[in-house]
Structure formats: structure tokens, C-alpha cells
Amino acid sequence: MSNRKVAYVWEENLIEHCDRLPAVIGRASLVHSLITTYGLLNNVKVVRSTPATYNDLKLFHSDLYLDHLKTFGQIDDDYMPTTEDEEYGL
Fold this sequence. Notes:
The chain is mainly alpha-helical. The chain folds into 2 domains: 1-51, no CATH class; 53-90, no CATH class. The protein contains 5 helices and 2 strands; from the N terminus they run βααβααα.
């Protein structure tokens, strides 16, 4: 038997941001509600999420990708993705 512990990373604003992702609109809050309703948090360690630093992001993402993200400001509803956006899957 393993001594591993299970952790659930949670923060309300993280759920809200994930709910707005076009591919999975509303899914994060639905899944979180199911997890809490079924009492699954009773047997895990709940950990609050913390924002990643730029150096944290660099451990996973390329500098080119992060530099491209820096070019975004407020996005309007009529925004059309550029070729570079599409290359990054944005």
C-alpha cells in the first residue's frame, strides 16, 4: 500500500477563470460542485492555489510563448486571432 497523499488545488477565482475557457465553459464549477457534494474533499488535503511567477512559467513554457502573451491587453469580443496566436493555440 502506498503512503501517497492526494491534494486538491482550489481557489474560487481559478474556478471562475476556468469556467470561461471556450472549450469547457462552466465545467470547472460543475466538477467542483460534484466533488464537494459527494464529500470527496473529506479525504484529501485542500491546497489554495498561488499565482505562478514568471520564472515558474518559464519552467514549462518557452520565452517566445511568454513574450507573445505579454502582447495581449484587453481583448475585445471582435478580436481576430493572428497567425502567431493560432500557432500557439490561442
